[in-house]
Write a structure and sequence with these properties.
The protein has one domain: UDP-N-acetylmuramoyl-L-alanine:D-glutamate ligase (3-Layer(aba) Sandwich), CATH 3.40.1190. The chain is about 35% helix and about 25% strand. The protein contains ten helices and 13 strands. Strands 5-4-1-8-9-10-11-12-13 form a nine-stranded mixed β-sheet, sandwiched between helices. The protein has a four-stranded mixed β-sheet with strand order 3-2-6-7. A hairpin with a 5-residue loop joins strand 6 and strand 7. The two termini are about 20 Å apart. The model has no long low-confidence stretch (mean pLDDT about 95).
């Protein structure tokens, strides 16, 4: 397959109060892209253990294309506690399989057939996976039409200014939430100015096609040169918010690749993430009225 949409980084188990569910932002992203009818692939690593085999079997059962390396580290797990508002708190285990994604000939071949890729900061906490992500980006076709999405996804201090700066320079679409914008603003010296002004600064400084800012119940924005799209957040009964942001990114990118306008893509992204919030876990099956 050509013109693939790739989610690259962590594939793991979210250990929720009611049991374990497959998670990891790149896997969530790739799965939801596939529900919108585009060829997608998740790139990650698992251990030679029961949890790793179950991840591979689960992706296979979902019909999700995968390039999952087996490495001599345990499969990743995340302890997830959900607060009264349905917002997750994460305890992410370290030195696990997805920290050690190898760069291989099949992965280089995949990069050459990739139209869009989504990666984050979490999978770059270890030098092995960080190097693999950067080599993958180098091996992608150098086309203005390709989408390189940096979904920042700051977690537990597993990031630093150098990693964030390099990733922002390499992407052409950046996604972050309002809390992450505050952290980025402090780190890069943009405190004390309006939220939207901070986004305009980042858009211009890193020559981005788009900057996506989600603000929870306060709506979301998509900044493009000279224009901003705003969508309110629908009021829904929240089961949990695990994976909602990844489904937003997937719906948005799939829509843009299908030729939709930014406001059209933004509206569908908001509807999709709101639906995911009404379901437990990160990978519910989306209804046909969203994916048609």
């Amino acid at each position: 397959m050509n013109n693939l949409v790739v989610g690259m980084g962590e594939a793991l188990w979210d250990v929720l109060p009611e049991g374990k569910k497959i998670g990891g932002a790149p896997a969530n992203f790739a799965y939801h892209v596939s529900q919108f009818g585009l060829p997608s692939c998740v790139v990650s690593a698992v251990g030679d253990d029961a949890l790793g085999k179950e991840i591979v079997e689960n992706f296979t059962s979902k019909g999700l294309n995968q390039l999952i390396a087996e490495v001599p580290y345990p499969t990743g797990t995340v302890q997830v506690e959900i607060d009264q508002a349905g917002v997750p708190q994460y305890e992410i285990k370290e030195n696990v399989a997805w920290d050690n994604i190898p760069y291989t000939a099949p992965l280089e071949s995949l990069a050459g057939r990739t139209k869009a890729v989504c990666f984050g900061s979490l999978a770059q906490r270890n030098v092995v996976s960080r190097s693999t992500i950067n080599r993958f980006l180098d091996a992608m076709p150098q086309s203005e039409d390709n989408l390189v999405v940096f979904d920042i996804n700051l977690r537990q201090g597993f990031y630093n200014k150098e990693i964030l700066c390099n990733s922002m320079e390499r992407c052409n679409i950046m996604k972050l939430n309002d809390e992450e914008l505050v952290i980025i603003s402090r780190m890069f010296g943009y405190p004390g100015i309006d939220l939207q002004d901070k986004c305009w600064i980042l858009l211009g400084k890193y020559n981005l096609k788009m900057l996506i800012l989600t603000c929870g119940i306060n709506g979301s924005y998509v900044f493009t040169p000279g224009h901003v799209s705003f969508q309110p957040t629908p009021s829904v009964e929240v089961a949990d918010t695990v994976g909602a942001g990844d489904s937003f990114t997937a719906a948005f990118i799939a829509s843009i690749l299908k030729g939709k306008t930014v406001p059209e893509a933004h509206a569908l992204a908001v509807q999709t993430s709101a639906y995911v919030c009404t379901k437990k876990g990160a990978m519910p099956i989306l209804p046909p009225e969203l994916t048609a």
